[in-house]
Amino acid sequence: MTNNDILRRLRFAFNFNDDMMIKLFKLGGQEVTRAEISSWLKKEDAEGHVGIYDKQLATFLNGLIADRRGVREGPQPKPEKTLNNNLILRKLKIALNFRDEHIVDTLAKANIRASKHEVNALFRKETQSQYRQCKDQFLRNFIYGLQIKLRPEMKLGHHEEE
After folding, report:
1. pLDDT (tens digit, 9 = 90+) per residue, 2-12?
2. Fewest 10 Å CB contacts: which of 37, 53, 107, 122?
């Protein structure tokens, strides 16, 4: 999954409009325009599509954390220059104030069975023997589970505005 896919899916799952997207980027420390948001949300083969960098997606996720959990005292977290699915999942977990069992429940909504131990392995340090890499399909299904949880009015079986 590309960063653009992730941004598009999160926008859809949370039902964010352009103003909210702009607000979240600002909370994360970056001013963005409606035109930038629009170019990031376009499908890869659409005219005007622009790829979103890891640092920009990290800024958005930091803004989501600030919006959901409140702005931290003192210096704000710097966006990571490099993201992976494990870090994206961690940021979503923090933003949503989820524990491992909440992630298991969210995955179950997308018909994915995972144990708390499997989920916990995704949040370990890479150097630990129990560490597990978060694959695209896992992250995609987690975001889809969020969509079902946050937007129950959406028909099941549609991963986004297809």
Report:
1. 999 999 999 99
2. 53
Q: How many residues in the chain? A: 162
Please check whether residue 13 is in contact with residue 151, taking contact to mean a CB–CB distance below 8 angstroms: yes
Cα distances (Å, whole numbers) of residue 19 to 11, 25, 32, 35, 95 = 11, 10, 10, 12, 19
Query: 161 in a domain, yes or no?
Result: no
Do 62 and 76 meet the contact criterion of CB atoms below 8 Å apart? yes
> How many independent structural domains does the chain possess?
1
∠35-62-138 over CA atoms, to 5°?
Answer: 95
Domain of 118, in residue numbers: 3-150
CB 32 within 8 A of CB 72: no
Residue 155 in any domain: the answer is no
Residue 96 lies in a domain: yes
- Give the Cα separation of 99 and 128 in Å (integer): 20
Answer yes or no: is 160 within a domain.
no
Using a cut of 0.85, tell me whether the model's pTM lies above it: yes
